[in-house]
Amino acid sequence: MLKRARLRALTSWCFCMILASCQINQTQDGSANQATERLPVKSAESVPEYQSAPRDELTSEHAITYLSLWERIRASLPLQPAYSHPRVLEQAARYAGNQEYFDLIAERAAPFLHGIVSEVESRGLPMEIALLPFVESAFSPDARSREGAVGLWQFMPGTARAYGLQQDWWYDGRRDPRASTTAALDYLQSLHNEFDQDWLIALAAYNTGSRNIRRALRREGVEIEEADFWKLPLNAETSAHVPRLLALASVIAKPEASSVELAELSDSEPLSYVDIGRQIELEQIASLTDLELECVQALNPGYLRWATHPQFPQQIAVPRDRRALLERGLAQLEPSRFVTWEHYAIQPGDTLSEIAQQLGTSAETLRVINNLQGSRIIAGESLLIPRGSSLPTLAELRNRRPFDERRQQPDIPDFYTVRRGDNLWSIARRFDLRSADIAANNRLELDSLLQPGQALDLQFARHATADRPLKILSSDLYSVRPGDSLSQIAHRFELDTADLLRWNGLTNNDLIYPGQKLILSPR
């Protein structure tokens, strides 16, 4: 069990973690809401074209001041009568005493949970829904399932498009916490209306799809008005999914009953959103705000490349205390420092190489920029043509793959000299380590302020990984396949079975089932 001092340090760390070297002013008014992602696999089957659901205006009751974000969540958990169901209690027992798991999810949720809670509250939805990203993706915007579901809310491509989430070479709305939250809540409200205002069945449909719920109703021989979620013949994943969410909510409601303590997340918006109005490189944002590039990327996971979108979106999330710094920097930034583009209308008879030669670039550059698979182009369509002094070279374009595909084994020095703006989280992220491990091995608190020139001992990482090299995963989640066992999964990813059990709140006696999502990383 963490001591209170440890929890206070963890709370500060949670905000520093994604907000890099920022001092968050918890007393300012919050800005726009944020969002997160999905449940297991969804298909686009029977999904109507999305029409934005109406938003309720905040009423005076929403002006209540809460001591923490967890307290705000506890104030609106209408599904509590279901918490006592045996299947929920079984799942809750797996969470009991798993302090490391709750430290992990609090750390990941710190930047984005407040925005999700605000959006759920403004729509008058059960606050249990705000906890869905914990179950779906372990609150990781980078999470990608084997089936292709992506983001906090784990949207499949077809369903994402049906609910208005943009997906192209530059940007994936499924990874954007705010955009994906809006889409996920619209989807859930649609399912709630479709299934007779039954939230448990709506949550099950979010996981498995409306068609499978309809099939289960036919097999049970009941109409939706008479249906009982607990009696529906659903697949193992969906049957466990809803109880798992309710179990998590029950622990959040009364953490002391499960022998865990929650890091106290402040009930204030940690981020501010700035509409740039033009395409800009993320490195430029990092420079203007005095943040690490990794921090800017982590706060804006929807952008897949080195810059914002050439057309839309062009909004950037930054820590609230960096907004003024960013706005001042943008006002003084020379136009040549922005990424600029022109549209070239393809004419009959044009070839890619001729266009490139005419415009002073290369055919390969045009292929990369426009995400072309070959040299075939179609008259009447248009090509994006880069302009401006900030244009990256072709070599840079080739190296600038999506951020979630670029992680490589880092070279970890024995000692690291602190730079201006560093904190424990930013250093840990740079070398793919845990902040807590760096702190413990240097006798520091997690919220310690580091001084430029200070030396940190990182030799522990080299020793800890000598027998088993670090395995950098493209996703923190693994979807269990038929025939899998915990020991096989641990061996496949070069993990200790004990760690895999601990991170997922499991014991050696627990059974796993196809489609179940397992956390593969402590970070």
Give a structural overview.
By secondary structure, this protein is mainly α. The chain has 4 domains: about 1-20 and about 410-460, Membrane-bound Lytic Murein Transglycosylase D, Chain A; about 30-260, Lysozyme (Orthogonal Bundle), CATH 1.10.530.10; about 340-385, Membrane-bound Lytic Murein Transglycosylase D, Chain A; about 480-520, Roll (Membrane-bound Lytic Murein Transglycosylase D, Chain A), CATH 3.10.350. It has helices at about 5-20, 70-75, 85-95, 100-110, 115-120, 130-135, 155-160, 175-195, 200-210, 210-220, 235-255, 280-290, 295-300, 325-330, 350-360, 365-370, 395-400, 425-430, 435-440, 460-465, 485-490, 495-505; strands spanning about 270-275, 315-320, 340-345, 380-385, 415, 455, 475-480, 515-520. A two-stranded antiparallel sheet has the order 1-2. The chain starts with a helix and ends with a strand.
User: What sequence of helices (H) and strands (E) makes up the elements?
Assistant: HHHHHHHHHHHEHHEHEHHEHEHHEHEHHE
The CATH topology annotation of the largest domain reads as Lysozyme
Strand order of the largest sheet: 1-2
Rg to the nearest angstrom? Answer: 24 Å
Write the topology of this structure.
Layout: H1 4-19, H2 69-74, H3 86-95, H4 99-109, H5 113-122, H6 132-137, H7 157-162, H8 177-194, H9 199-208, H10 210-220, H11 236-253, E1 271-275, H12 282-289, H13 293-299, E2 315-319, H14 323-332, E3 340-345, H15 352-359, H16 363-369, E4 382-387, H17 394-399, E5 415-417, H18 424-431, H19 435-441, E6 455-457, H20 459-464, E7 477-479, H21 486-492, H22 497-503, E8 517-519
Helix pairs in contact: 1-4, 3-11, 5-8, 8-9, 9-10, 9-11, 12-13, 15-16, 18-19
